[in-house]
Structure formats: structure tokens, C-alpha cells
Specification:
This protein is of the alpha+beta class and about 100 residues long. It has one domain. The chain is about 20% helix and about 30% strand. The protein contains 2 helices and 6 strands, in the order βββββαβα. The strands form 2 sheets. Strands 5-4-3-6 form a 4-stranded mixed beta sheet, covered by helices on one side. Strands 1-2 form a two-stranded antiparallel ribbon. The N and C termini lie far apart (about 50 Å). The chain binds zinc ion (ZN). The site of zinc ion has 7 residues, from loops.
Length: about 100
């Protein structure tokens, strides 16, 4: 079994399995982090991961969470509500072609 060596800021070096590490990669934003829970102090540790660390953790079998670029987009206006979704569903029942009704941002 693969052993991953990481460092807890409080406890020092810790040995982890790939299942104990979470790798998050946001390629569109150019950053990546890995997290693990220290087995001694039980703190959740998060550290930046450069390309080399991402490659090593991936090859060791750590699951990679990819952050979609849409998450990092700037949004304007109020969040969509359930009423907005219901209004759209009702509107779609009476409209077969929606393209003419689309408004560019
Ligand atoms: Zn610790």
C-alpha cells in the first residue's frame, strides 16, 4: 500500500494513505490544495500543492476534486430562487423555442 508522508504544523511528519488525502485542483484559477486530518491532533490541515505535488498525489491514488471554472466566475444579481425555477418551468410549458427570448449578459 502506498504511504504518503505529510507534515502537520503541530505534530510534525505523519503517514497517510491515499484515501486520507483530498486533492482539490482549480486549473482555471491556477491553484491546487491538498487536505488531510492529522491522526494525532485531529486538525484539518490544508496546504498548497504545486504541479509536482499534484502529479505525485495523483499517481499515488489520491482522488482529485476538480473545481470547474464556472465556480470561479464573478456573478451579478441575486441568487436564483425556487420561485424563479418554477416560473421558468411554467414558461417552458408554453414556449417551444427559447432562443429568441435569450438575453445576452
Ligand atoms: Zn497534528
Amino acid at each position: 500500500m502506498t504511504t504518503i508522508k505529510a507534515t502537520c504544523p503541530m505534530c510534525g511528519d505523519v503517514d497517510l494513505t491515499p484515501a486520507q488525502v483530498r486533492l482539490t485542483v482549480a486549473q482555471a484559477a491556477g491553484w491546487a490544495t491538498y487536505t488531510f486530518t492529522c491522526g494525532t491532533c485531529h486538525d484539518l490541515i490544508e496546504k498548497a500543492a504545486d504541479d509536482e505535488v499534484v502529479a505525485l498525489l495523483s499517481s499515488a491514488g489520491v482522488c482529485v476534486d476538480l473545481v470547474p471554472g464556472e465556480v470561479l466566475e464573478t456573478h451579478r444579481g441575486a441568487p436564483i430562487t425556487y420561485d424563479d425555477v418554477l416560473d421558468l418551468a411554467l414558461w417552458l410549458e408554453t414556449h417551444d423555442v427559447i432562443v429568441p427570448h435569450l438575453v445576452a449578459p
